[in-house]
Design the sequence.
């Protein structure tokens, strides 16, 4: 990321001043935060360490854990056994969590900085009454490619991910919703289709791609693309901006067929044990100073216009983080799909992932059994022949 002269000491003093004294004492103890990997400013490159600054400002300790997909996070919540106070799911997953009663309504008296969230990111389809979520970031999905190896004439469409010229150098999302969205875009379907035939057609399209795929990844994309181990991958624009700092040959493309536009938001799950502490954390992240510093580091887009004042001008003006209205018009947000459709997609995704893979374990087991049986029978036959031979010697004697 861009280097900045911003000491941690100054950051802590700044952030301590952002929370009024009454609020700072309203909550205490510890909060468990469950976020995407590499999705918060951690003190690297001269940027603020968000969690350390929050702890200094409030006295609330942060246990910070990460997940690599909405589905991983959902499984953790659904199966129980873990306690999280703050989670950061994506729009469609928030809709699912609300529908299944897994989120607590927010007390906005404890989140006064919510007033800085732009109206464009309120009253969304997934949370129309703003009861359960506060926008954290927004962004888009596109294609990251290595210009040192990929011909520019091949770039512009999702079909780059199906180009056999780059077989073995292509990465693919390792989650069904993002992967199916790409195939649906190519086939001209809505990213929120519930039609079984269309979902099956998308699965067949993904199966067609599979022989070209080096790996299905999420956070692993960073190392593979930065080191040139892979040359093409679909991923989030904000992450591209981070990767491009490490590899200047990387480029980003908004596919002509369309792409996913998303919002990730801060929520409190029903398993939370420190709701006031969680609301203090959400409020802290919403202050323009902290939000600007955090999003400047991440490269993702801020839902607060006021936060841009605290960003590097280059970041605030990026046409990748903040694309034109014309480009955004090709984007489509994910909606919550009903459980029947979700189960069908999950089942089809399993078919995609296992297509062409043969489980040789039963075959090996049967073969081993046959060989052991043959060895046993052979040994028994030799032993019986020896016994008969010995009996014959005895009789002849």
Sequence:
């Amino acid at each position: 990321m861009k280097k900045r002269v911003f000491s941690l000491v100054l950051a802590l003093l700044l952030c301590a001043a952002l929370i009024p004294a009454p609020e700072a004492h309203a909550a205490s103890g510890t909060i468990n935060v469950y976020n995407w990997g590499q999705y918060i400013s951690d003190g690297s490159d001269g940027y603020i360490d968000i969690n350390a600054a929050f702890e200094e400002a409030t006295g609330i300790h942060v246990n910070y854990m990460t997940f690599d997909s909405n589905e991983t996070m959902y499984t953790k919540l659904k199966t129980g056994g873990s306690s999280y106070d703050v989670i950061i799911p994506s729009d469609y997953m928030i809709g699912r969590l609300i529908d299944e009663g897994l989120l607590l309504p927010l007390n906005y008296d404890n989140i006064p900085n919510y007033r800085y969230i732009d109206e464009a990111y309120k009253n969304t389809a997934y949370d129309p009454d703003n009861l359960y979520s506060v926008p954290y970031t927004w962004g888009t999905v596109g294609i990251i490619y290595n210009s040192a190896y990929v011909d520019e004439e091949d770039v512009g469409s999702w079909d780059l991910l199906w180009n056999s010229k780059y077989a073995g150098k292509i990465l693919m999302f390792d989650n069904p919703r993002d992967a199916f969205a790409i195939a649906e875009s190519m086939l001209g379907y809505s990213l929120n289709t519930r039609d079984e035939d269309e979902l099956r057609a998308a699965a067949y399209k993904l199966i067609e791609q599979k022989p070209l795929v080096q790996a299905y990844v999420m956070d692993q994309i960073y190392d593979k693309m930065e080191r040139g181990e892979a040359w093409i991958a679909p991923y989030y624009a904000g992450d591209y901006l981070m990767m491009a700092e490490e590899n200047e040959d990387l480029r980003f493309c908004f596919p002509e067929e369309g792409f996913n536009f998303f919002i990730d938001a801060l929520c409190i799950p029903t398993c939370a044990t420190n709701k006031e502490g969680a609301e203090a954390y959400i409020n802290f992240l919403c202050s323009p100073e902290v939000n600007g510093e955090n999003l400047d580091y991440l490269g993702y887009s801020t839902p607060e216009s006021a936060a841009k004042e605290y960003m590097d001008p280059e970041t605030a003006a990026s046409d990748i983080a903040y694309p034109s209205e014309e480009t955004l018009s090709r984007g489509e947000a994910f909606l919550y799909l009903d459980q029947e459709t979700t189960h069908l997609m999950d089942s089809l995704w399993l078919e995609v992932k296992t297509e062409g893979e043969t489980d040789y374990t039963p075959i090996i087991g049967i073969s081993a059994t046959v060989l052991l049986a043959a060895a046993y029978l052979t040994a028994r036959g030799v032993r019986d022949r020896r016994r008969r031979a010995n009996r014959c010697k005895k009789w002849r004697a």
In short: The longest strand covers residues 134-146. The two ends are 96 Å apart (CA to CA). The chain has 15 helices and ten strands. Residues 175 and 233 are 14 Å apart (CA to CA).
